[in-house]
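Lecture notes, unit on protein representations.

Consider one protein chain, 94 amino acids long.
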Amino acid sequence: MRPELELISEWIRPGTRVLDLGCGDGALLAYLHERRQVSGYGLEIDSANIVKCIRAGVNVIHADLEVGLEDFGDSNFDYVIMTQTLQAVRHTER
């Protein structure tokens, strides 16, 4: 287990809805689903990581964060997580 997964999970209330921006291989969402019974989605741009998410049973949407999050309404999620992604985003104002 990656130590940051446990640290992040301590901040998330059980049974909540989570959006993971730049979810990578989906490890965090899978961990939160198992340990905190959360539901949610991951957004990912890399095709190889999307395949990993699907294989892990993680709900994933192919999306480019540079375009924005217009497909999601306000209050759709209780938590929005962005780990190891912010440094790769060029247009943070969106």
